[in-house]
Amino acid sequence: MQKQEIIGSIPLISNTESGMFFLLAGPCVVESEDIVMRVAEKLTRITERLKIPYVFKASYRKANRSRHDSFTGIGDMKALGILSKVRSEFNIPVITDIHSTGEAVIAAECVDILQIPAFLCRQTDLLEAAGKTGKPVNIKKGQFLAPEAMQFAADKVRDMGNERILLTERGSSFGYHDLIVDFRGIPTMQKSGLPVVMDITHSLQQPNTGAGVTGGRPDMIETIARAAVSIGVDGLFMETHPNPQEAKSDGANMLKLELVEPLLERLCRIRETIHAF
Known about the structure:
Layout: E1 5-7, E2 10-11, E3 22-26, H1 33-50, E4 54-57, H2 76-90, E5 94-97, H3 101-108, E6 113-116, H4 124-132, E7 137-140, H5 150-158, E8 165-169, E9 172-173, E10 179-180, H6 185-190, E11 196-199, E12 205-206, E13 215-216, H7 221-230, E14 235-241, E15 255-256, H8 260-275
Parallel strand pairs: 3-4, 3-14, 4-5, 5-6, 6-7, 7-8, 8-11, 11-14, 14-15
Antiparallel strand pairs: 1-2, 9-10, 12-13
Helix pairs in contact: 1-2, 1-8, 3-4, 4-5, 7-8
């Protein structure tokens, strides 16, 4: 299968024989310029050393919070300006979420990939607006959807003349307060020919707790990551923070920044071993 490009060195088509997985990673939300730049600098250095194609991730605004008083951001234009600075200073692509049709064009001016949150993956007008920008679109699979249903979400972007699409697995609802990962979903979605990403942090959320604050199982991040890499996932998505306990969003399921490098080293060895056979 001929390799094509979506952004930088991230493949436009799923190809489990192509070698190293790519990485989408960063803090959950833009909390401050200092945190964003610290995380971007460290992850850029790590991925360059390990030769992992890398995209910096951070939401410029969080629209889907459990409680009304939860942190949503520092201001749209200020946060987008910081993401633009990441692009220019580190020469890396950037991905961010959008939540409404009006955000698509605004965000597309400042980032390289637009991300559709899982809760919104069936919103036709949002998918169409993202597709019309011509930017690559990462569609996160809803916790309520079967993997094979994601072809219809992808088709809404394709119908806008945009073939630059990624699909991300992030777990499925399991009762009221937990998620479970069915790894059959990765090869199922890869049959579409699109690159498939495993979200190794959001898939460990424990949502909808009585306190209105999402919990998580960060101790299982490596388990999910190892399994995904071993079965040939195209990319990994993870959120990381210098101090998750102080993070203003999703701290309960983020990986501490100092743990990222040893984890990626182990995952690289797994992928290299698999490709040796």
